[in-house]
Amino acid sequence: MSDLSTNPEITHNRSNSVQLRTFIVIRWVAIIGQIIAITVSVRYYDLHLNLLLCFAVIGVSIITNLTAMYAFPEIRRLSEKQLMLMLLFDITQLAILLFLTGGLHNPFSLLILVPVAISSNCFANTRNNCIGSGNHRSDNIDRSFLHSSSR
Predict the structure, then answer these.
(1) Using an 8 Å Cβ cutoff, are 127 and 82 in contact?
(2) Number of Cβ within a 10 Å radius of residue 57
(3) Is 45 domain-assigned?
(4) Mean pLDDT in the chain?
């Protein structure tokens, strides 16, 4: 019996198990959660956020999701490159939202690790390192925001 983690055929095609439809559903859940979190924080906790920019960032994610839904068939499997680009988009979108809503002081800042966790499950080391470095750059953006806002 061969070990699945060392079989080159299986490790090369690891991202073939991710369907576009699955990724889109996960994104819709994230979009709804983002809208609810921003609405609740403004209405009930009296946080002063730039709602236009926050909802514009979420709107870009909605447009991207709708485009993916109608441009590609539901049963399409994502290649590693396509999945990497989608995860980098998600990290960028989350980093911008965190920047607009308070940076690392935001209790949702841990959600930036979700795309990294997905990539560690789906990618070989090369693409996984790319996702990790994108996440590290977004963390630096949030840290610079915290440093400038504390002055």
Answers:
(1) no
(2) 20
(3) yes
(4) 76
- Give me the domain span that covers residue 50: 8-149
Positive or negative, the Cα torsion across 122, 125, 127, 132? Answer: positive
Q: Give me the number of domains the chain comprises.
A: 1
Distance CA 27, CA 96 (A): 16
pLDDT digits (tens, 9 = 90+) for 84-122: 888 889 989 999 999 998 887 877 788 888 877 777 766
For 47-69, what is each residue's pLDDT tens digit?
889 999 999 999 999 999 999 99
Do 57 and 97 contact (CB within 8 A), yes or no?
Answer: yes
Report how far residue 24's alpha carbon sits from residue 30's, in angstroms, rounded to the nearest whole number: 10
Q: Are 27 and 61 in contact (CB under 8 A)?
A: yes
